[in-house]
Amino acid sequence: MNRYLSWMCQSLIIRRTLIPAAHLLLPLILLLAPLMSAAQTGPAAAEPAKESRIRVAAAPCPPFVISENGELSGLGVFLWQQVAAQIGLQYELYELPLSDMLSAISESRSMSPTRTDVGISCLSITAEREKLIDFSHSFHETYTGIVVREHTFMDMLRGFFGSAAIWRALAIVIGVAALVGGVLYLLERRRTPKLYSSETRPGRLAEAFIVGLMFVTQGPIKFYEFSTMTARVLAAVLALSSTFLIAAITAILASAFTLDAMRSNVTGLQDLNNVRVAALQDSTSSKFLQDNGIPHLRKPDLEEMMRELDAGQLDAVVSDAAFLRYTILEGRKQGIYDRLSVLPYKFDNQNYGFAMQPASELDEAVNQALLVVRRTPAWRNEVKKYLGE
Fold this sequence. Notes:
The chain is about 55% helix and about 15% strand. It is an alpha/beta fold. The strands form three sheets. Strands 7, 8, 9, 10, 11 and 12 form a six-stranded mixed β-sheet that branches. β2 (about 65-70) and β3 form a beta hairpin. The model is unreliable at about 1-50 (pLDDT under 50).
C-alpha cells in the first residue's frame, strides 16, 4: 500500500513538470520543422540530375564519318547507331575536328558544357592514344596498303624495253653468242662446210653468230657436228656451262615478263625505293615508310595524291587500305580511277575503335553491343557498300 501511494505521488510530480515544458516545446518544434526540412533537401537539390542523353562527337574521315550538307553518315556512324539501339542509349551526335574531339574526350568533366562521352572517326588504337583516352573493342581491322596505276599496252611495251633487266639479258645473249660463235668459226670454218657454207664474209659472220646463238638458246651443237677434236671438246665443255647460262637468262626474262611487272612498276615494298611514292603527312603510313627507310612525298590530302597517281605524276600512294578502297570505289562511280588498284600486300595492321572517356561507365555495354552488331548482315552490307569488300 505504501509502495502504491509512493508511485502515485511520483507520477503527479512528473506530470506537473512535463506538461508546461511540452507547451513550450511544441511551438518551437513547429517553427524549426521547415528549416530542418530545407536543410535536409538543400544538398540533394544541388546534385545534378542524371543525364538521359550522352554526347557523341564525330570527326569527318571518309568512309567512317562522312559529312555532307550538315548530315553525318558513314561506316562508323552507322555502327554507332546500331550499338546505341542495341543498348537503348539516347545521344546527341555532332561534328568536331579530330584534334578537338580528342581533347574534348580526354579533358572533359561531367559538369562541363563541352563534355563528350564518345568519339567516332578512323581512330587507330595505339599505345600513345591509350594514355589519354580509352577505346572500345576494335570495330574494323585494316592495314597499310599500296595503290598503283595499272599500265596500258603501250605502257607495258615502254616498260619492257625500258627495263634494265631486259637490256642486261640481251647484252649477255649477244655477247656470249658472238664469243662462242667466233671461237667455233675459227676452228671449223674450213673443215665443216655444212655449218659455214656462205661465200661472202658477212654471210659467214652471220653463220658464226647463229651457231653461237643456238648455243645460248638451245645448248651447244652436238659434238659430232664438228670435225676438229678441239671444237668437239669445247662443245662438250660448253654443254655443262650452257645449262646454268640458259637458266640465268630464263630467270631474268621471266622476272621481266611477270604480270605484276607489266601492270605496274611496283610489285612490293622493296620497289618503293625506286619510284615516286607519296603518303599523308603526319599519318601512320608516313611513319611506316620512314621506319622502313623509304623516301616519300608528304601531302595533306588523299584525293590530291590519287589524282596525281591517276595522271602518272606519282607511281604509288601508301595509306590505310580502307581509305584507298573507298576513294577508288567513289572515283569509279564518277568514271575516274579505273586504272588504279590496291596491291595484294598487307603491312602494319591497324585496328579502329570508338574513343571513350577514361574509366567510362559505357565501356562494357558498348563492347558487348559491338560483338553483336558486327555479326549482323546489316553491318556486312555496309562494309561492302563503302569498301567493296
